[in-house]
């Protein structure tokens, strides 16, 4: 096969990462056809509108690129693939309630791609995948649908997305692009393509399997690191120590990179992709499955258990939560991003409800109707005076100036992200506590007694 000129690119999946990728390629002179099964998304893009609010650059670039004929969208993936020199796939793979990997959406997309695949086309998957998926699962589907042979009739490669919502274009400029093909020619074709649309360094891997492995271990490392920090925090609470000060000092040693403890881990990546790595254990002998990758398994349990530990800290501060009103600040999985994928707010709500608490939420990025649709009860002015405890779950900038005096009966604020100033809370007459502060802050009963004595 001769390398194509990569003039036309089909991006399959126009979500929060797919649309920025399509824009990135079009900005570098490629004719980009975005493909998505959501016809509303397709219509918006063809009208020059972006449905992705987290990336401000899209508001300017989408209409410009559509106007210049470099960007268009369609719901007809097979037809778009027939025109394309390169197909980049960024369709979600998720885990179900049993933590099993669900390929349904990306399998359907791969089938549609195979139906339109032409000789000499480069197909690259960017979706995070279990090791072996590109070379085994997807190559089989593509070959079956197209009657072409991967490596002989078309190029097949894997290059994981490594970006975060809110600053995708910055990440594309900075983070090296990891690339691996099913053979040397596929790897080189993918390298040639990405070097034509990215300014970042490219890293050649030995295979698609190795490139898939890279994304899984870099993400799982973060989950394990956070779990370790959370274990340190819980230990610090038993010893009257402040884990934040200890971690800051430890990290002055160049080889120490301890993350920050908190009330939980959320998002599309960190709490999900360890299960993709663990999925690679299913081919092992039954007796060895639980022992292999035991640290990532345990780390997931630790991080998911932080919601229950948060409830324990609140109970230690104000006693039983039975019929007590508790406010969760922030349902987004992280600060200043309107995204609730695998948010810790859900685990917190469940743990609080199990303790008998009445749970309300606030999030400046969501309307009351949106919060209700997500399964939460929004805070309203008429219940502000009933709130007895607050948990900061997302470090939104808006909370840096939150007026806690509105919550006249609140006794304690647990800052699960260490986002607030202690003075901000204590000035409103409330106790300020965090995960891993050593349990050494004045408890609310003592605070009330001191207040009574002063009177």
Automatic annotation (TrEMBL):
One of its GO terms (biological process) is polysaccharide biosynthetic process. Transmembrane segments: none annotated. One of its GO terms (molecular function) is oxidoreductase activity, acting on the CH-CH group of donors, NAD or NADP as acceptor. Signal peptide: none annotated. It comes from the Bacteria. Keywords: NAD, Oxidoreductase. InterPro entries: 6-PGluconate_DH-like_C_sf (IPR008927), D-isomer_DH_CS1 (IPR029752), NAD(P)-bd_dom_sf (IPR036291), UDP-Glc/GDP-Man (IPR017476), UDP-Glc/GDP-Man_DH_C (IPR014027), UDP-Glc/GDP-Man_DH_C_sf (IPR036220), UDP-Glc/GDP-Man_DH_dimer (IPR014026), UDP-Glc/GDP-Man_DH_N (IPR001732). Residues 327-422 form the UDP-glucose/GDP-mannose dehydrogenase C-terminal domain. Belongs to the UDP-glucose/GDP-mannose dehydrogenase family. NCBIfam families: NDP-sugDHase (TIGR03026). This is Nucleotide sugar dehydrogenase.
